[in-house]
Amino acid sequence: MSKTSILPGEAAHFGALAGDWWDPDGASAMLHKLNPVRLGYIRDRADQHWQLDEMSRRPLEGKSALDVGCGAGLLAEPLARLGAAVTAIDAAPELIAAARDHAAGQGLSIDYRAAAVEDVQGKFDLVTSLEVIEHVADPQAFVAALAARLVPGGLMILSTPNRTAWSKLLTITLAEGTGRIPKGTHDFDAFIPPEQLKQMLAAAGLKCCDVEGIAWSPTRGLHLSEDLRLNYLVAATHAP
Question: Which domain holds residue 41?
Fold first, then answer.
């Protein structure tokens, strides 16, 4: 078992993108398009899990959140705006520096750290790690480390590409091939099918309570769907 989930080559790859991370037309443009879809799912699952007020602008007030593999803060900032006390970590110091600068400009207080999840102390109500598990050294150990930082009764949300011919075509052949995603971002062999991720969650003492796809179409772009072929989100809690 790896002592750390971090792969230095992956950290260096993403760290090199820090300069224009917040540019919606830059190298991370696809993440900007994906983020509202992911955030909508997180809000919906949190509302259901904690029976929150769906109309509240700060439904996560009083709750703690840990965002693992936060990049420069595309998810951490909205979580903070929703009221959560956010700790956000990433393997790339360049991304953490960019995240701190951007949050300061937005007047947001977020505890950003250049760290591996194994180095984080404490437990959190909400643990998120989106588009990260396919970039770590040992996915099973990584899921176990995430689970260890979830409070009893907490909620974990992950997202990752599925390992299908469709995801390979759209994510690697087309998106990376045309420069919409930086080349070398993805390794198809590291993609994880939903059933495999469910098994990892179960081995870590978690129960998968929801799976939803992120699909793409020319008319709708990226959107939540029952189609899991491209990418998907899972919500999990501690098993009873």
Answer: 8-51+60-238
